[in-house]
Write a structure and sequence with these properties.
The protein is mainly β and 151 residues long.
Amino acid sequence: MQVLTKPYGKIEVDERQKIYFPAGLLGFENLKNYLLLDAAQQPFYWLQSLDVPELAFVMINPTIFRQNYFHGVLPSELEEIGLTVTDSENSLVFAIVTIPEEHSKMTANLQGPIIINRKDKVGRQCISINSDFKTQHYVLEELAAVKDSVC
């Protein structure tokens, strides 16, 4: 199917890239249909609204810069999209990234992870009950810390 996207303009996508969010996303509860797209620059992804072409979110898998990341969401929130806490095989976990003009200050929201049931193509933005996670984690700083700890 052809869709209009914020990052790429009009493109052809596979129906399997569609993700339905029954509750929408926080602040965008009325928008429920999205596409999961690879970004041109890895390790990022786009969550593109199918309802509003101008709306797309940059996302990242938080374990890339926070290796011990566990979303810490309530089991009831996972059940809403057909998952359990131990069902890591069928789940994808992302954090929404904010990229300001000064790219080195890029942050990821680890307090509000996006969790997707990859089998059923259903997603939910959850709220982590883990008090270690905030809405702004500096991605590049944490990546540098991971790199330094490996060396």
